[in-house]
Amino acid sequence: MDVERNRARLLEAAAEAMAQNPGWSMTDVAQVARLTRATLYRHFGTREKLLAALRAEALNRAAEAIAGSRPDEGDAVDALRRAVEAVVSHGARFRSLLVEDADQDPSFGKERERVFAPLLSVIRRGQETGQIRRDLPPEWVLTAMTSLLTAGVRATRSPWYGDSSVADLVLTVLIEGVGPRR
After folding, report:
1. Which ranges does the entry annotate as DNA-binding region (predicted)?
2. In this structure, are residues 94 and 11 in contact, taking their beta carbons and an 8 Å threshold?
């Protein structure tokens, strides 16, 4: 029990330390967690292993958020909206991870594709019903959405954006584009 609790505490502390200080250290993480450095190193060993664990947790939370957003229910745009809102709600915790350029890790990109893959059927459903353009490959629409999500989560550092406005901005740009309304 203590092992799992300490691991969760250390991951929480790592996210917090990264948010507070872009030049964070393992010592910072241990201090935020109020655990010893020895405990931190027993769990993760290196900064890279800690970052990998944090990335894995971010992806697990995103997968849970997408599954919990009921992607098979309702029309496609509503389903995408629920999924985006659910993922963005976890974004603040993992914002610093994205700022650390998790996208540069090829395994992170592959895992992110797997996590978001259930939304391909939602996009296809939207194409069948005319809510989403049929001339765009569903994979491209999904890539655009994950890119907008990443940019949106990064932007939430700004005082102008909250979680709900980021979700709205992502969906508006994804579905309506940036051209003038017709």
Report:
1. 25-44
2. no
pLDDT digits (tens, 9 = 90+) for 24-56: 899 999 999 999 999 999 999 999 899 889 888
Short-list 85, 60, 83, 61, CA closest to 73: 83
pTM: 0.81
pLDDT in tens, 114-156: 999 999 999 999 999 999 999 999 999 999 998 898 888 777 6
Query: Counting beta carbons within 10 angstroms of the beta carbon of residue 176, is it exposed (0 to 12), middle (13 to 18) or buried (19 or more)?
Result: exposed
In order of their start, the domains of the chain are: 1-45 (1.10.10), 47-176 (1.10.357.10)
